[in-house]
Amino acid sequence: MVVLTGHTDCVNAVAFSPDGHWLASAGDDGCVWLWDLGLNMGAVRIAWGARFVFNLAFSPDSQTLAVGTETSVLLLQEEERQWRPRQQWKDHRNWVTAIAFDHGGDLLASGGVDGSVRVWDARHRRRRPLREFVARVGTVRSVVFSPDDAMVATAGTTGLGLWKADEVEPLLLYRLKDADARSIAFSPDGEVALATAGRSIYRIDTTTFNIDEVQMGRPGFYRCLDYSPFYPLALIGREDGTVQAWDVAGGVDRRLYDWHQGSVNSVAFHPGGLMAASAGDDFAVRFWNLNLKISDSGLVLD
Prior knowledge:
Strand order of the largest sheet: 1-28-27-26
CATH architecture: 7 Propeller
Strand content: over 45%
Structural class: mainly beta
CATH topology: Methylamine Dehydrogenase, Chain H
Helix content: under 10%
Order of helices and strands: EEEEEEEEEEEEEEEEEEEEEEEEEEEEEE
């Protein structure tokens, strides 16, 4: 495990570039850090006057990094190994706390404290959103496209939602009682979505829209999650500073990584599926090898 330092406040998000070259992080210090995993450039710090950076996402071609701040959605473009601001949208009326590209790189979805989701033309970067709707889940903490880009899932302070990507009426709205959903992720085949919602982990069947509570803890315990790109394994960040590796198919814990002091705010699988990163309230980013092996059921934790 490697500890990546540089942030001077809580780290809110981590993301790998799809080409596996960069690991990016964003924090309450208003900075984005990019670590060159090829070890050619080391670490790059990007600061442009933001007070907070809440979330970030790479485009599929790894050339654009979208970030959500207290005032806007900002696109950073890589040019000759330098990341420079290239587009800014200020339509949200408050903090932008959720952001995601579709898998074709044509669309960018953003959500925020104003409770809305906006879908932007990421390819041509038109000034106005293509669509916008009230998500009906309170503050939007997480937004993600399904693997086929047909659906958008949202998680927020009052509930969970599924939407067709080109419509504004929900396929599913699920209200939460005394819970705050901070993270939602699709399985690689798109048949299941998992969401962290405070004391619970929820499993959503994206065909029948049935919702099951598959794990329970104390209030505020489950903070974030990510789904492995290749096998039924999820990483779940928790309030106690640990990252739980959970076998989604078998419903059993595979390993517990005790990486952080304070809450874990974000977890991410490397696109190769063999490594992972996490970020937390201890100002640190952790990067580690998952130690996978091949078994009769596929890749599992050793």
